[in-house]
Write a structure and sequence with these properties.
The structure holds two protein chains of two kinds. By secondary structure, chain A is of the alpha/beta class. Helix content of chain A is 34%, strand content 11%. Chain A has a five-stranded parallel β-sheet. In chain A, 40% of the residues are buried. The mean pLDDT of chain A is 91. Chain B folds into two domains: 2-70 and 93-211, no CATH class; 220-350, no CATH class. Chain B has 14 helices and twelve strands. In chain B, strand 2 and strand 3 form a beta hairpin. Chain B starts with a helix and ends with a helix. The relative contact order of chain B is 0.15. Classes of the chains: A alpha/beta, B alpha+beta.
């Protein structure tokens, strides 16, 4: 932090939240020492969770948490996009729809009635969409929550104007480097073989399965899924259910992402 | 073989003294050995006594290559602060003893030694290798049905170690292969092997000759022809239809050495490091280049490439198979792609 040139103009960065638990923003507050380095490199002008100031000019970087689930949110994200040079979809809800996408498994009116009761029509609600299905996104930070080292990498790329490529290999590729015992060999279905790497198999390293929070790889092995399910004698419905927990909004991508 | 057995470099370590041996060794350097993990898996990790070690084990999740070329490795630090950018090569090569490497894994290290000794030499690998004291452990029986070590003749020891242990029932025969090993054996005060010990070793080896048999029923001398004719074989289509492209098979392979290199800049945008990580030819991005071309876009092409990198290309270049028969790729495959079955299928179609 000390050797950051004093004359450098630090980019104006703002955090915004939509439908989410705000846990990914909390990850920023939890960064510890590297947070000081980040604050040396950027100028945070708006961040509802940690400060009360607002900013009325343009943003160099807008960091968006949460998915778009009603028409008010759609208008708001479009306005933010218009004021931002760079927009980062931050966390599973923003990047792939995340758990909010489970709403898309139901008829909209049915789910609205379940949540809001008989007067549900007074409450606006649309299908859940990740940010890139509404406005252009420049960078993706996947994960529920985001993996702090990857957040740093994306920020460094954004500050240098370089693209960041989300790894498009299955989580297994990192899990094996960490020499974890495969969850399937322990008799548990894990979403690793279909989920994008980049988290350093964070969950499996800590004894949990991969829940698929980083989204499905672009070109998943459709036939192979049957082999895997067959080899380990699993129930396909259970696997599909686990997959839908985070990945339901993929249906809205038409294979473009 | 008999020349080796009769050599003067054989010593004896009673089973009961293995613990003392490991303890003494771990006072000199870090000792790693196979340790039992969950669900019948094993992994090389640090030990301080014999009770932690799995003397009989199915090949570990990752082979000992992880100590010779770590999964992630820093190559250099750089600094752009001054008038001229500067960099400094980095190597982390601790003194290390690897205990209990099977002959398949010793063969894997021999393959990597050839690859990284080629010019331009890989100094990080070669310097690290100099610091590793390698202790082999003979398999008197098959680890499981996935191994194919007899096919590639790696079930018997053929060098590539400092010390080599063979279990003779109540004692280990310890073959001394290097100067460094001789010094350690002398320091430990290991007794010389007697003619009776050598006869017992002969007996173990004799028995192995009937236990370990070509696992695929195809003469390995036929394999070059099978691969020469098999580029369009339908076995590759079959593999491609099943492959998950997770890279498990290459990560666990004792002879796969491909890596990716990247520069990582610190937040100050002035300093940073160059790092390499294991890469895999099974990843869709592996053979894609600028402009969007991908030379091995289909999973079938990538799987075929993997097999040719084990049974054809290294044969042309290094005169040996780069498969050591350890069976790891078969054990780890999410989609049950089986090396023995693949070779059998290819041979059936071509030779």
């Amino acid at each position: 932090m000390t050797d950051v040139p004093k004359t450098a103009v630090r980019p104006k960065v703002a955090f915004f939240d939509f439908a989410c638990c705000e846990g990914c923003q909390l990850q920023v507050a939890n960064l510890g020492e590297s947070l000081l380095d980040i604050l040396g490199a950027i100028d945070v002008v708006e961040f509802r969770e940690v400060m009360s100031e607002k900013w009325d000019k343009d943003y160099d970087v807008a960091i968006i948490e949460g998915s778009i689930t009603d028409s008010h949110a759609e208008e708001r994200i479009k306005k933010i996009r218009a004021r931002s040079k760079v927009l980062i979809a931050y966390g599973a809800c923003a990047a792939i729809g995340g758990v909010n996408g489970m709403k898309n498994s139901f008829q909209l009116d049915e789910i609205r009635g379940y949540v809001y009761g008989k007067d549900y029509k007074f409450f606006d609600s649309t299908k859940t969409r990740p940010v890139h299905q509404v406005v252009k996104v420049d960078y993706f930070v996947n994960g529920c929550p985001v993996y702090p080292p990857e957040l740093l990498e994306v920020l460094k790329c954004a500050l240098r104007g370089l693209p960041y490529t989300v790894p498009d290999n299955p989580v297994c590729s990192e899990c094996k480097l960490n020499e974890n015992v495969c969850m399937y060999e322990r008799g548990v279905a894990c979403m690793g073989p279909w989920t994008k790497a980049g988290c350093n198999s964070w969950c499996v390293n800590n004894g949990n399965i991969c829940y698929g929070c980083r989204g499905e790889v672009r070109n998943p092995a459709k036939n192979a899924a049957q082999d895997v399910i067959g080899r380990f004698n699993l129930n396909p419905e259970t696997v599909r259910g686990k997959f839908d927990m985070y990945n339901k909004c993929k249906e809205g991508d038409n294979g473009n992402k | 073989m008999s020349a080796e057995v009769k050599s003067v470099n054989n010593h004896i370590l009673p089973h009961g003294e293995l613990d003392g041996f490991i303890r003494k060794l771990s006072k000199k350097m870090k000792v790693v050995a196979p340790v039992a993990k969950e669900a019948g898996n094993f992994a090389f990790q640090e030990v301080s006594g014999a009770s932690e070690i799995a003397l009989k084990y199915v090949p570990t999740v990752l082979p000992p290559k992880k100590y010779f070329m770590p999964q992630r490795e820093k190559m250099l630090d750089f600094d752009l602060t001054g008038a001229q950018p500067s960099d400094k090569a980095v190597i982390d090569a601790p003194e290390l003893a690897v205990f209990g490497a099977h002959t398949c894994d010793l063969a894997g290290i021999q393959c990597l030694n050839m690859v990284f000794s080629e010019r331009p030499r890989d100094y990080n690998y070669l310097l690290r290798k100099e610091k590793i004291f390698l202790i082999g452990m003979e398999c008197n029986d098959y680890c499981d049905e996935n191994a194919s070590c007899a096919l590639v003749n790696s079930h018997m020891p053929s060098g590539g170690y400092d010390l080599f242990f063979t279990d003779l029932g109540d004692r280990f025969m310890v073959h001394v292969n290097t100067q460094k090993a001789e010094e350690i054996v002398e320091e430990m005060g290991l007794a010389k092997a007697s003619p009776a010990d050598l006869a017992a070793l002969d007996k173990v080896r004799e028995r192995k000759r009937s236990v370990f048999r070509n696992e695929i029923g195809v003469d390995p001398r036929k394999l070059p022809e099978a691969f020469a004719k098999g580029e369009k074989s339908k076995v590759w289509e079959d593999l491609g239809a099943r492959c998950v492209s997770c890279g498990n098979c290459t990560n666990v392979c004792p002879t796969c050495y491909c890596f990716d290199m990247a520069d990582n800049v610190d937040l100050n945008m002035k300093t940073g490091s160059r790092n390499r990580t294991w890469d895999s030819c099974q990843f869709e991005t592996f053979a894609s280049v600028a402009g969007g071309e991908n030379f091995r876009e289909a999973r079938s092409e990538r799987q075929r490439h993997r097999y040719y990198r084990k049974f054809k290309y290294p044969l042309d270049k290094f005169y040996r198979f780069f498969c050591t028969g350890c069976g790891r790729c078969t054990r780890t495959c999410m989609a049950r792609i089986n090396l023995k079955e693949t070779l059998k299928g290819l041979a059936k179609e071509t030779v």
